[in-house]
Design a protein that fits this description.
6 strands; 260 residues; 4-stranded parallel beta sheet; 41% helix; alpha/beta
């Protein structure tokens, strides 16, 4: 198993732990001892999740760039992700992290995740010759209702943390035009319709500028596909996706499926 480590602001974490009694950002139970945003147990589980194998390309999820179905047709060839996500696996730190980010403004957790994600992102940027002059990081905006309820726009905070780690500028290129039903309550086709009426473009993108599109979680890909189409129609030369996790098919279904 490949080992991954990121530098963390230990004095700040220790101070936060001492003052607020913050527990692990994934499980919410174990003490981090002020050394990390995750407890040692969740840190090891996260590393294992990052090393799980993508059934499409055979590389680890942390190393794979496979988009979800429909993304290539929409105009996005690559999707960087930290790990796979199974919402039914309540013991997974990925599950806990996604839930934490949807309800809390946790700057240290976003920085922690961005430091991991910036490694493959910088590698892709080098291969595609992306620079701060010809590339912008943007994000999938959360619904106004959810932002009022939680005070959180998790994709924005992720995009901002990625911008700090990579040096690319961060701009809000997309806007929320309709607060439809929550995507997680809808089927695949319903998600496509809901995404199509939910987003719009804030401004035209300068010629030759590519866009890195950040979101916390990619499930069917309906939202990221619609946002990709909008960005391309607004002038984006290329669109590259980056997320914390993508929902994966359960292992039982994968094992029963014939692979040719």
């Amino acid at each position: 198993m490949t080992e991954y480590t990121v530098a963390e602001n230990t004095p700040f974490l220790w101070f936060r732990s001492l003052i607020s009694g913050e527990k692990c950002a994934a499980c919410g139970n174990n003490d981090t001892r002020g050394m990390s945003v995750l407890c040692p147990d969740c840190t090891e589980k996260l590393k294992k999740a990052m090393n799980e194998i993508c059934m499409c390309c055979g590389s680890t999820y942390y190393g794979c760039l496979c988009p979800v179905p429909g993304m290539r047709e929409a105009g996005c060839e690559y999707l960087i992700k930290l790990a796979g996500y199974d919402p039914s696996d309540l013991s997974s730190p990925v599950n806990g992290i996604v839930l934490r980010l949807k309800g809390h403004k946790d700057r240290m957790l976003h920085t922690y995740l961005a430091r991991y994600l910036s490694v493959p992102l910088k590698r892709l940027a080098s291969a595609r010759k992306l620079t701060p002059e010809n590339c912008i990081i943007t994000f999938v905006p959360r619904s106004k209702k959810k932002k009022r309820l939680t005070g959180v726009d998790q994709a924005y905070f992720l995009a901002r943390a990625l911008a700090k780690e990579t040096g690319f500028p961060c701009e809000a290129l997309l806007r929320r035009v309709h607060d439809g039903a929550s995507q997680k309550t809808l089927g695949e086709k319903e998600r496509e319709v809901n995404a199509a009426i939910s987003y719009g473009i804030r401004k035209k993108i300068p010629d030759g500028v590519s866009v890195i599109l950040a979101d916390d979680l990619v499930t069917t890909g309906a939202t990221v596909c619609e946002c990709t189409r909008l960005l391309r129609s607004a002038g984006a030369a290329e669109v590259y996706g980056v997320c914390i996790a993508r929902t994966v098919q359960k292992r039982k279904k994968i094992q029963n499926k014939d692979i040719t």
